[in-house]
Amino acid sequence: MSTLQVRILGSAAGGGSPQWNCNCTVCTAVRRGDAGTQSRMQSSLAIRSGDGPWLLVNASPDVHRQVELMPAEHRTTGGRSSPFAGVLLTDAEIDHASGLLLLRESTEPLQVFATAQAYGALTSDWPLVTMLSDWCGVDWRELTAGTSTRLDGFDLTADCFTTGEDAPRYQRAAGGPGTSIGITFRSAGGQTVTYCPTIETWSDELRTRLAASDLVLVDGTFWGATELADEGLGSRSARDMGHVPLGGADGTAAQLAALGTRAVVVHINNTNRILLETSAERAALEALDITVAHDGLLLEIT
Ligand code: MLT
Ligand code: MN
Ligand code: ZN
């Protein structure tokens, strides 16, 4: 039987939860181990079609611990092996790409699927890929926003589309189409999962795409439009940071509820109160049948 499986390896946004230097309400509760809280690693997942190989989607700074969330049966015996046959990057942000350096011991060149924009950033402003040439090297497979690519060896097709044009802070050149992408993964059996850890804006095209998917994994970075400022943690708004907040009349939660598709929120910032199981924000999502991802969550479409 053909299935599409997704394992959430990190459900938090950059910094993880708790974030090392953060004393916000949620980080404090998680650090204390309050009931209804759990820690979360940084944004990453693994996907596979049927019993094919796993593809790592985003390489976070927590990748070593995330590898250990993969069941032992996916590790071959003898010598060295990886439970992942390749890595796909949705952007070149620090939380999504720095794990590449931590995979440098690979015995084969890392197969990396990324747009020319993300790959360009990782060979210029932040030359991780260039550095890796002195270890395992990188075998780059280009993804292009607006096109569909067969992921060789994975029995998966990736339809790529731009979800954000906001360049990483370290990047000198301006961003543009392809800077942050979402992917609709399609299995050999026709099952579809759409993953977009960044949603800068909702469009009819995005709504149509998500409504046509069997499962969607979407940007749950912030609940409130001014969440960081409200916690006294800086002045940048959710939209300044390239993320539509979950809450509010035109927020992502309302958008997802209108679609009626099975939805899971991922890339959750440590300040977001949906991380507290007893919060009003968490209850609001649950009332809309929207799932809050946790690390290790296995999602299966049959
Ligand atoms: C984002 O998701 O907006 C970025 O990862 C933020 C950052 O780490 O600078
Ligand atoms: Mn991020
Ligand atoms: Zn925090």
Key features?
9 helices, 25% strand, seven-stranded mixed β-sheet, binds manganese (II) ion, 19% helix, 302 residues
Helix content: 10-25%
> What structural class results from the helix and strand content?
alpha/beta
Give the distance, in angstroms, between the N- and C-terminal Cα atoms.
8 Å
Strand residue content: 25-35%
The 3D shape can be described as globular
Number of helices: 9
Poorly predicted segments = none
Rg: 18 Å
Strand order of the largest sheet: 6-5-4-3-2-1-14
The kinds of small molecule bound in this structure are:
D-malate, manganese (II) ion, zinc ion
In round numbers, the mean pLDDT is 96
Task: Please give a structural write-up.
With 302 residues, this protein is of the alpha/beta class. It contains nine helices and 14 strands. The chain has a seven-stranded mixed beta sheet with strand order 6-5-4-3-2-1-14. Strands 7-8-9-10-11-12-13 form a seven-stranded mixed beta sheet. A hairpin with a 4-residue loop joins strand 2 and strand 3. The longest helix is centred in the N-terminal third of the chain and has 8 residues, at 25-32. The N and C termini lie close together (8 Å). The model has no long low-confidence stretch (mean pLDDT 96). Bound molecules: D-malate, manganese (II) ion (MN) and zinc ion. Manganese (II) ion (MN) is lined by residues 13-14, 43, 93, 95, 267.
